[in-house]
Design a protein that fits this description.
Helix content is 55%, strand content 0%. By secondary structure, it is mainly α.
Length: 71
């Protein structure tokens, strides 16, 4: 949703509250979570090994298979 720059801060706040209410009550997810975004930022402690993640391994093998087929 694009915001109109001429909106007053009071109107923007009301719109934000309405959107949050709809997300909580009706299960409407925001853009990043509906697209499957998973935060994988740096966190304190030991770093996670993403190459042992089965989803990542499957994506990598699929990409390598496509590259071999194209040759």
């Amino acid at each position: 949703m694009s915001m109109n720059l001429s909106m007053t801060p009071k109107r923007q706040a009301a719109l934000f509250v309405r959107m949050k209410f709809q997300q909580l009550c009706f299960g409407i997810r925001d853009g990043s979570t509906s697209n499957g975004y998973q935060k994988r930022g740096r966190k304190p402690g030991k770093r996670k090994d993403f190459m042992s993640d089965p989803d990542i391994i499957a994506k990598r093998q699929k990409a390598l298979a496509r590259m071999e087929a194209a040759e």
